[in-house]
Amino acid sequence: MSDGERNGGDQRNLDEVRADIDAIDAQIQDLIAQRARCAQRVAAIKLEAVQAARSRGESDQEVVYYRPEREAQVLKRIIDRDQGPLEGPTVAHVFREIMSACLALEKPLQVAYLGPEGTFTQAAALKHFGHAAVCVPQVTIDMVFSEVESGQCNYGLVPVENSTEGMVSHTLDSFIDSPLKISGEVELRIGHHLLAAPGARAEDISRICAHQQALAQCRNWLETHWAGVEKQAVSSNGEAARIASVTPGTAAVAGDMAAEAYGLEPLAEHIEDAADNTTRFLVIGRGEVPPSGADKTSIVVSSRNKPGALFTLLDPFRRHGVSLTRIDTRPSRTEKWAYVFFIEFEGHMQDPAVLEIMRELEEQSILLKPLGSYPRAVL
Prior knowledge:
Blueprint: H1 3-6, H2 14-55, H3 68-81, H4 88-106, E1 110-114, H5 120-129, E2 134-138, H6 141-149, E3 155-162, E4 166-167, H7 169-177, E5 181-189, E6 193-196, E7 207-211, H8 212-217, H9 219-225, E8 230-234, H10 237-246, E9 250-254, H11 256-262, E10 265-268, E11 278-285, E12 295-303, H12 309-319, E13 324-331, E14 339-346, H13 352-364, E15 365-375
Parallel strand pairs: 1-2, 1-3, 7-8, 7-9
Antiparallel strand pairs: 3-4, 3-11, 5-11, 6-9, 6-10, 12-14, 12-15, 13-14
């Protein structure tokens, strides 16, 4: 078989192919500019509509620039229509950044996340909102909620569960008292490294710092290779990296972003015990999200303490054919030996079946709090 046959009959030489690439790049750049101008026009239309409503005394609402359901629909269509040779998610990541930059022309999003700089939560925020978003680090999960509740930030990113270590209880507890709603979810593959300052030697390390979840996710590896070294839990992996950058004899368990942010070098890479270690994050905001066509809903519910209580709560989902994707329990803070259930399921609060389930649960429970319906993670 000739080279031309192997390349589908393409007989161009190197200079010709490069010339074609340059021409295509120019077309892509022109189309991106056209898309950006369309985004600016969308912003103008939204602003005009809100101003007109205010002038009539009909509304005091703010302009909504970011639409989670619309973005999820666009990214899903990109993946669905992809024909290669690049994989659909790869192309969708490129479009995510284009969409992020276009949205910033309308109004840059302020996104609170569990900091400091270099945490996996920051990486999740950039994955979901793109690099044009303004990421604002917070010291605690409670402060992420507070920044969004106060309006200082448009959205927040909080970790909710890890594939090997389970739910993040602090995040679940924060939802009970907060008025915020879940606006989206992000799944992030977690790669942990053992990091230290440049020039540090393994034999000089006397302490390893990390968030308690990271220490748990690397427990077996650390016990096998660093059994005699102190393990210290800190507020985040980013904070662990910062400590390691200024404290001789200290190493950190953290990821690539933390290594780059604090100038650290790996003593060992990919030390997580589970090869498919993944953390799921929730996007929190102040508003309800309309249906995207591929949604999840999360609720908090508590029933009376009696035999068969949990079965009574779950049976409506079975009867209406709605699949559960997650259920967890937390102790009630108002009654001894009572529990609240965090239930996640497929569908949107506006779906007829879900509306009927909510009606039945309201009759059977002493607490029912919808946390929001939101698009399933696309990337």
